[in-house]
Amino acid sequence: MKRFISISLRLLISSVLLALLFREHDLIAEIAPRLRALLTNWPWMLAGVTFAFLSLFLTAVRWHIILRGQVPELPFSIVLRTEIISAFFNISSVGVVGGDTYKIMSLSRRLPGQTMPVSVSLVLDHLTGLLSVAVLFAVCMLARASHWSELGYDLRMLITGYSMYLGGAVVGLVLSWISFKPSLLEWGRRTFPRTMGNPRLASLIARLTRIHDVAARLWRRTLSASVVSTGMHAAFFMSFYCGLRAVEGVAPVLDVLTAMPIVDAAASLPVSISGLGVRERTFEALLAGLANVPEAVGVSASLAGWIFNLFWGIVGGVMFLREKHAALIQPEAQCA
Which among 253, 37, 12, 273 has a CA at the least distance from the CA of 144? Predict the structure, then answer.
């Protein structure tokens, strides 16, 4: 019942946000003609779809680098297939099974008894993503530092708020790394035996300690994964730049790369279906403020970028359905 209510609320929020957007920017007169331009500007559309796949490919490479530190025999082809299928669940965000849940379930079936290493690798995978976004955003902001005073007050506050959020997350990650050193944990158990002995807290600490130990042991792989992750995010953000050009919008690449970390963070909030509505409104506001892109163009570009990534989500859905169909047919064949 809770899941049904959650999905219904997210559907409602997305519907309301999109309705308000299409009321403000006429769907038929302003948005639809620009989306039809995708067929005319097919080189940019093809480039956007290619960047979307490159993002998925590098995501699989990033995860595989960490996974091989614990499961050396796992082929990359399986990880890539799992990543593409998980894109279906990530892009829909409607079902009860999320992309991460599917990844854990899929690899756990292939690797009996390896559920914990797979889960830990996925956590590390996301942490490298956080670090790479922070680096990419910092580089973009440094490159635009001379234009800071030209931005409007609201836009400066939005960027400052996101910078504080990102900086706080990185600082928290560093403090967590220090806190879960074995010597410090042992001191905490001796000093605060009741608190540290709480079953729920002890269970949480045990899981976080496992992540810390794996990261310490695989620090070279984690560093390599962070480098790959930077390329992965850049490719994902470039798919939206291609979307902007495909709907006949123009803006510097740097402005799009600066806006996209904030747009992606807003779209990732669990308040809408696949970020629809939230992504478009954020993309519209940021590109209008950073590069004076007309608002209707910003909305159209955001939808185009989403469509490029939706394409691979649909491909993943087809692969998932064929996988299930093959699993159903195989027992029948054996019985025959």
Answer: 253
Amino acid present at 152: G
135-154 residues labelled b (16+ CB within 10 A) or e (exposed): bbbeebeeebeeeeeeeeee
Tally of structural domains, the chain: 1
27 located within any domain: yes
User: What is the domain range of residue 166?
Assistant: 2-179+218-335
Confidence of residue 109 (pLDDT cuts 50, 70, 90): confident
Please tell me the pTM assigned to this model: 0.88
Does position 329 have pLDDT exceeding 60, yes or no? no
Percent of the chain with pLDDT over 70: 93
Mean pLDDT of the chain: 86
- The H or E element spanning position 271 is none
Q: Taking Cα atoms as reference points, which of 290, 286, 305, 276 lies closest to residue 34?
A: 305
